[in-house]
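Input chain follows. Return structure tokens only.
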Amino acid sequence: MSERGSERGSERGSERASQRASQRASQRMSERGSRSRSRTSRLSIAPRPRPEPAPPPSRGAVGRWIRGALLDNLALKFLSLVLAMTVYLLVNTDEEREIRVRAFVEYKYPPDKVLISDRIDEVTLTIAGPLRTLRDYNERELDRITLDLSTAPTGEVPITKNLVNLPPGLRVVRIDPRAVRVAFDKLVEKTVEVTPVTVGRPAHGYIVKEQKVVPATVRVRGAERLLAALTSIRTHEVSVQEHTESFDSQIDLAAPAGVETDARQNVTVSVRIDEELVTRRLPGVPVAVRGDGIDPARWAVEPSSVEVTLTGAVLAIENVKDKLAPYVKLAPADKAREASREAEVSLDGIPPGVGRRVSPERVKVVPIKPP
């Protein structure tokens, strides 16, 4: 009995010890949970600190930065610049480009023939080469293209690239036009008359009375068919504008296309200027009565007016036409008789060199009886 009681007492003691141990473990776990919750609440409630603004850079710092950017590693920066420029020049100078220029064309003809087809005096060249070489090239340095036609037949004559002289490094890509059409005729000479040409008008009252040229004929050269229809050659224009006197003028010849003259050949044109002569009719000019002791109011003229015709220089007639004074002259004996009579019409104010005619030449003079 005593052994069983002791066993039961020991079993109960062990049960109580395990209960106390489990209680202490649960108590520790609850304490840990409360501490973690308090930390979490403190972390969520605490405000974040604001970052302080950076202080503005001082002038000394900015200057040090610029100085460093320009002067630090100066040798390395200079080397980089040289390499960059070298690469740029190599790339650009090796680049192929094209330009278009004009080239003048000259011809060599057979000595006994003349070109009758249209001439091409210039062509357009397309030149290719390195850009740097093209930039230094001057179009004015280009020589003329010479076409030798001395042995060329009638037809198309090509303009080839080997006729163009270019500096080294440049080449001709295209020629426009690529050929010229040629046609020839026999070269001949001929003597033709020279026709002077004047332009303008002399001053008022003057006219060109005559014009002559010395020499009157010249020798010309050209195609046989062209000269066959040519009978004269004109001079360049000689102005007679506002001239009042005769004059001489040396002038060149105006040869038509395809006709050649001596390059030193000029002619003298003599122009004769004279006063212009005209005839003017002045109708209805009243006739006056004159005479010593004659009262014109006591005499009537039938018809009372005449027609006057003047012939002479324009300026002289214009100056005299307003001064004409036709009249009949009576003698003292006519006053005494107081009878009708015929009288010749006279004119005053006519200068020398002006011709005149009066119609009718005689009029009837009738005395007027007082009322």
